[in-house]
Amino acid sequence: MKYKTQLIIILFIIILASVPIVSMASPDRMLSEVERRPLSQLTGYSQYLDTHYGAGLSDYLAYLESYLLDQFPFRDDLRTMNAVGRVYGLRQLDYKLFYKLEGHLAKLDPLLRQNAVERALALFNRLNDDLFDGQGKQLFALIPDKNVFIAEKGGYPHYRYAEMLDLIEKTLDDDIQLLSLLDQLSLDDYYRTDPHWDQTKLKPVSSYILEALGLSDSGSESYQVSEGLAEYYGTYAGQAALPVEADRLSWLSSQTLNGLTLYDPVTEERTVVYQQDKLEGIDPYDLFMGGAKPLLIIGNDAREEGKQLVVFRDSFGSSLITLLAAAYREVIVIDLRYISMDAVSGLVDIDPGADVLHLYSMSILNSPGAFLN
């Protein structure tokens, strides 16, 4: 018995010592494809002090701890084991704010941050006053997140969609029409493994918005579903580290949609709205208009005499705006998280009489400091 105990102790010490040795000896990984984020890289003490003004030894040791955790051997497998053990073993309701219900992964966002919402709306009101003359239609469409559909069922805290809608209605300029999208959507319209909605389910949403813009007869073109990835694992799949059934990443195509052109005034790159090379990248959802871009212009040669649409959006807009673009001569797409309007004004010509759509998800509006302006 004595020898068995000693053997267990020796094995434990060997394992304990080998982990940091293997971690330090192995080449650093630059990215976590599962979590879709850059990983910490090893930096010497003197170099760390040179790049972190006022830092000391305690700061460097804290950085080393983060570095070793990021580069830990078999890190992704251990994260999954930890998440499964906590949720299914210890019966935790969530793991690092992520939870799974009805086959969907979601992230807790329990409190309505009124100041963040009001600050964003003040920006939108100012843009409305400065840029547009009121000749075009002006809409604000609020996108519900998945918590709206499942949080209450699982006993998770979440503010109500109507609560944010009421706040927007009180703060938004009267000449901007507020549009609720709640009745046009259900949980099944979202990916199971990602916060975003599935474009192949969005025809009713695009038709609803076009009707509000006075273009109800413009969404009659029939679409075909183009298959992309049979096994798509979205952002939440990696961040939550919980087992979940894969999604299918597909998109809608037609003669008009396939003929749309996409121009990036920042990089001066011209391409198409569906960038299929992104399906092999770290985030396949970037298929839609190349992912996170500060400024884009969609051209539609089939509508040479049509109007201009200006869309202020977050990442949800990437997949929906393409369906709206079929009804317009040109769509200017602006993401105020990455560019200021001062920079935009020097790169594109905005028609003061253009139609305007503010298209935002609840989670982005509820994020303090989300916008540059």
What features would you describe in this structure?
The mean pLDDT is 88. The protein is globular, with a radius of gyration of 24 Å. It has an eight-stranded mixed β-sheet, with helices on both faces. A hairpin with a 4-residue loop joins strand 9 and strand 10. It has helices at residues 2-25, 45-51, 57-70, 75-89, 114-131, 147-150, 161-171, 203-212, 235-240, 255-259, 317-325, 341-345, 362-365; strands spanning 31-32, 37-38, 98-101, 104-107, 138-143, 177-180, 224-232, 247-253, 261-264, 269-272, 295-299, 308-313, 330-334, 355-361. The protein contains 13 helices and 14 strands. It folds into two domains: 2-73, no CATH class; 104-365, no CATH class. The protein is of the alpha/beta class and 373 residues long.
Multimeric status of the protein: single chain
The low-pLDDT segments are: none
Biggest sheet character: 8 strands, mixed
**Average pLDDT taken over every residue:** 88
> Shape, please?
globular
Order of strands across the main sheet: 6-5-14-12-13-11-9-10
Strand-helix topology:
Elements lengths: L1 H24 L5 E2 L4 E2 L6 H7 L5 H14 L4 H15 L8 E4 L2 E4 L6 H18 L6 E6 L3 H4 L10 H11 L5 E4 L22 H10 L11 E9 L2 H6 L6 E7 L1 H5 L1 E4 L4 E4 L22 E5 L8 E6 L3 H9 L4 E5 L6 H5 L9 E7 H4 L8
Parallel strand pairs: 5-6, 5-14, 12-13, 12-14
Antiparallel strand pairs: 1-2, 3-4, 7-8, 9-10, 9-11, 11-13
Helix pairs in contact: 5-7, 8-11
